[in-house]
What does this fold into?
Amino acid sequence: MKYVAAIDVGGTSIKAALVSQTLEVITTTTAPTPQEDSTGHKTAQSLAAIVRELEQTHHVSAVGFAVPGALDEGKGVSRWTGNLGWKDLPIKELVAKELNLPVAFGHDVRSGAVAELRSGAAKDFQQSIFIPIGTGIAAALIIDGKIRSSDGYAGEIGHLNVGHDIPCVCGLSGCLETISSAAAITREYEKRTGYQITAKEILGRIRSDDHAWQVWEQAIAYLAVALEDLITILAPEAIIFGGGLSQAGTALIEPLQTILNERLTFQRMPQLLIAHYGVNAGTIGCAIMALDLLAKETA
It folds into this structure.
């Protein structure tokens, strides 16, 4: 039995797992994502430390890791990752030097889509969109049964202009992820109340706290604006939500469904679904990428 390290690098935390070749998760760990790491060296060292920790249980044969942003996945380069401060950074090379193991590299959202397409909520659809909502927001576009990235540029829906005036790290204002992401929800709640709590805690209060409900309602309304555009352009059969905010379940799906029922006219109404692998879709996708790399090397 072979085992791989699957590592999903997010804007605030790194989720990792030791995964068997049958996709059984043996053990998991998390670590904070290094901040102010424009060179990527701290992140590469953090990933190496995580792999050493996972190897205490079983030998790791390969590593699959994914990061957010606009990537050149073939070259292993982060063209631009706003939440991490990276630009034209050869992150795959940096990580490979630290590990001395076969390394598979991908986009965090598209790696999640790999898992959902292979054996999750997207497997029965030819046309779908996978949207994890976490620190930021992006999408993986599944068209004709394949994940399409347009050289790594496609899917950055967090930077769709949905019509507000909040500035974004990209240099513009009006971006979806500055009002509908978990980080945005936390900021907005603090702005209104003076209290800094997590997006998960805010979700837990939406039935009893007017401020929590108003922040959530606002985030949903702007997310629906972006979904309407995506549906009109791409006509997906399903939209699948992952990331931390997917844990909201019906509190996410039902208000979106209501708004879209009112807004869509001729467009195909997609099924709105929660990811089969939930918040772990990216991690499982990273494991699949690592196992695919091993299979290719031994073929």
Observations:
- The mean pLDDT is 95.
